Amino acid sequence: MTAAKLIRAIFFIEILKGLALTFKTMFTPAVTRRYPKVKRPVQPGFRGLHALAKDENGKMKCVGCGLCGAYCPSKCIYIYTSDGKDHKKVVDRYEIEVLRCIYCGFCVEACPFGAITLSEHYEYSDYSREPFYMTKDKLLSNWDKHFAGEKGKRYFRDFWRPKSEDFIGYEGQAMFKGIKNEK
Ligand code: SF4
Ligand code: SF4
What we know:
The chain is of the alpha+beta class. The protein folds into 2 domains: 1-31, no CATH class; 50-176, 2-Layer Sandwich (Alpha-Beta Plaits). The chain is built from 6 helices and 7 strands, in the order ααβαββαββααββ. It has helices at residues 3-10, 13-25, 67-71, 106-110, 136-147, 150-159; strands spanning 50-52, 77-83, 89-97, 116-118, 133-134, 167-170, 174-176. It has a 3-stranded antiparallel β-sheet. Strands 1-4 form a two-stranded antiparallel ribbon. Strand 6 and strand 7 form a beta hairpin. The longest helix is centred in the first third of the chain and has 13 residues, at 13-25. The chain is elongated. 15% of the residues are buried. Bound molecules: iron/sulfur cluster (SF4) (2 copies). Residues 71-74, 76-77, 96, 101-107 line the site of one iron/sulfur cluster. One iron/sulfur cluster is lined by residues 62-68, 79, 110-111, 113, 115-116.
């Protein structure tokens, strides 16, 4: 142990610093919020409950490529597909075991179609596990509930970066408008 550390230990410097901080903040107004009466506004890009995005015609955007599931560190995304007309992939089931999700957002980043999203909705506690098993229908209805109309458009406009139309070229790495690449 160095002399400085020894002095700090003998004179309880860290404890005194902690007490000083406590004393300093003792008379400032409390910041406790009376949830659920008072709620903090959700910050942009908040990662809440999942939703499967629909296009402007109300059709599910997901094509069942499986990239989201491959990237998911919790392995909580299950996708079942089959061969449809003209060998077009049909997404029969798309399920997320929300209780295992760590809300890392990798699925959102991995999806090349902007088909899986994380909404601003975080108040979905329940008494059993079943409601947390999100089926395709539930995920699609989450889109209607939490991203309907302008909100969905805003989500992609503000948080979906980089966009394909922002791609301006390749110089050793992909270049995007408004995004400064590391040298
Ligand atoms: S947010 Fe992360 S853990 Fe949750 S489903 Fe997506 S990739 Fe998996
Ligand atoms: S959500 Fe996106 S990444 Fe996942 S299967 Fe559908 S299209 Fe592929």
